Amino acid sequence: MTSKHLKSFLLFTIVLLLLIPTMVTNAEENQKLQGKTHSKKQMQLTTYNTSQSFARFMFDSGLEFTYPDAVRGVYVTGHSAGGSRFEKLINLIDNSELNTMVIDIKDDHGNLTYKPDKDSPYYDIAQNYIKDPKKMLKKLEEKGIYPIARIVVFKDSVLANKRPELSFKENGKVWSNGKEDSFVSPFKKEVWEYNLAIAKMAVKLGFQEIQFDYVRFPEGFEKRDDELEYTLGDYKDSDLNNVKKRVQAVTDFVSYAKGELKDFGVDVSVDIFGYAATVEETPGIGQNFSKISSNVDVISSMIYPSHWTPYFGIDFPDKEPYKLVDEYSKLENQVLSKLDTPPRSRPWIQDFEAPWLYSGATKQYGVKEVEAQIRALNENGINEFLLWNAGNSYTEGVDYTPLN
Questions:
Q1: What are phi and psi of 105, to 5 degrees?
Q2: pTM of the predicted model as reported, rounded to 2 decimal places
Q3: pLDDT at site 29
């Protein structure tokens, strides 16, 4: 061995000796991390791939939740989550087969329902409904209640009035519908990014799923298309007709959202009109049931009997909750069966009355009507559901697993 080779060999040996302690330490730390992750996240490791599991660890909120046998949940407003009704809802779940809360994080007006740090770009749109979201989620963890964050996307009066160029305008002013609600445009990718940043904030708080609602254009948009002023953004030069452009924009948002949240290890769900499953695509609002379903983990059709006109051969669906849900479930199963990777079905069902449908006595929704809807779902192999009541006042004494 020459002197030159000997010096190289000695240098290599010294470097190797210096690296060995670090390599051993890293191996030991990795072993500890894997053991810790396995012991605490075993259920999640069976669900998510390795990259997702480590991503979840990176954004660990310090809270631990296990996905239920089947999600059976209730809708909770920011007011309820931060007020006295919260304890009533906890007790309802404690004393029933319910196990999940879908909680407003960005509500129907466009407000955040809790106050983030003052340096947050969302501080000025936030209401202090949920005074301590971490404390709230800690309570849900203690009770074993699965938390889902609801984020209303394109119905957003706050953003529309703050940034009119992102909205739809009429005679130069921000347009609003008959309920004084304004929308921002699904064509604007800045709106996508705005909502995904809020979704990521919710994940970091500890929410296990992000549920996007109002993923659509305003109702009846096909009748207002020529009247309202708006820009098409990246869809300006598309050869698609206006209906197809709307469908493409909505579908692209859902795909974008799924991609943005992939590394956070959370499920992505979308609320969708029930009737969207009955047509190829909705002409005004831009929802294509199959295309949206192909890009989410969970699809939540809003199938309240009160919201259907005569359909499936049922003259007055609000009076026949079992039959309506049964017929819808059969149709949805057919549509989803044609997809390569169908999502879980988790419909929204009705736990409220619809007096606007009646000139006389209103059909009451109680134990019998709620159980009828759940039974219809279960008989068609759909075991997950969410209860909607805008005031969060839910029927007591319901058997939420009627086939057991």
A1: -110, -35
A2: 0.85
A3: 40
Task: Kindly report, residue by residue over 320-344, the tens digit of the pLDDT.
Answer: 999 999 999 999 999 999 999 999 9
Residue listed under structure tokens 């010096």: 7
Query: Which neighbouring-strand residues pair with 38?
Result: none
- 228 dihedral zone (left: phi>0; alpha: psi -120 to 50; beta): beta
Residue bearing tokens 């909705």: 282
**Is the model's pLDDT at 279 over the cut of 70?**
yes
Amino acid, res. 95: N
At residue 59 the predicted structure's pLDDT band, cuts being 50, 70 and 90, is: low
Please tell me the predicted confidence (pLDDT) of residue 61.
77
Phi-psi region of 70 (alpha: psi -120 to 50; beta: other; left: phi over 0): beta
Packing angle of the helix pair 189-205, 133-143 (nearest 10 deg): 60
Q: What is the 3-state secondary structure (H, E, C) of 104-165?
A: EEECCCCCECCCCCCCCCCHHHECCCCCCHHHHHHHHHHHCCEEEEEEECCECHHHHHHCHH
| DSSP helix, strand, coil percent of the chain (3-state; round to 5) | 45, 15, 40
CA dist 211 and 199 (Å) reads 9
Please, what CATH class does the domain formed by 66-388 belong to? alpha beta
Angle (CA) 83 89 91, round 5°: 120
Contact 361, 323 (CB under 8 A): no
- What number of other Cβ atoms are within 10 A of residue 244's Cβ? 15
Total residues found in the chain within this entry:
404
The whole-number average pLDDT for the span 366-390 is 98
d(CA 347, CA 299): 7
